[in-house]
């Protein structure tokens, strides 16, 4: 089997209600496919803050919601790996393709490598929408001057 769980699929689709149902019924929040894909990576692909919050709420170390700094901060504190994604594509590669600058900035804050290359040899900045806020944020982290 490939190890893709219903939770992986729910997070990839950004289906928070489905993810919540699965988590309430014992889905493994730390499940990893044979390709090394986690529900966290799929959540970054979908850009779903609601799914990310659920993964943290049902994660191994539960903390009351009012004590969470942010979902991504807590994911990293609980051992989420900002470098581990799908094959050679990192969560930053996935987030670069979404419109969330905040998600990209948090991944970088927690050590995501802006210079990392996918299996196709592409850096996250090369996957961002041209002239988008995400592309500008990645260019700034690379040290490129952006007007």
Automatic annotation (TrEMBL):
One of its GO terms (biological process) is protein ubiquitination. Coiled coil: none annotated. Signal peptide: none annotated. ANK repeats lie at residues 2-34, 87-119. The keyword Repeat applies. It holds the Pfam family Ank. Keywords: ANK repeat, Repeat, Ubl conjugation pathway. The keyword Protein biosynthesis does not apply. It comes from the Eukaryota. Belongs to the ankyrin SOCS box (ASB) family. This is Uncharacterized protein.
């Amino acid at each position: 089997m490939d190890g893709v769980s219903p939770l992986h699929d729910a997070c990839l689709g950004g289906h928070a209600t489905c993810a919540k149902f699965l988590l309430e019924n014992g889905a493994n929040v730390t499940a990893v496919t044979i390709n090394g894909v986690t529900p966290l990576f799929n959540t970054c692909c979908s850009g779903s803050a609601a799914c990310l919050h659920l993964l943290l709420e049902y994660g191994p170390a539960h903390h009351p919601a009012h004590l969470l700094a942010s979902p991504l901060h807590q994911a990293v504190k609980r051992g989420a790996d900002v470098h581990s994604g799908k094959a050679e594509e990192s969560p930053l590669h996935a987030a670069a393709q979404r419109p969330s600058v905040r998600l990209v900035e948090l991944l970088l804050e927690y050590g995501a490598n802006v210079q990392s290359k996918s299996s196709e040899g592409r850096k996250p900045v090369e996957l961002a929408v041209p002239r988008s806020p995400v592309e500008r944020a990645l260019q700034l982290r690379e040290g490129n001057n952006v007007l």
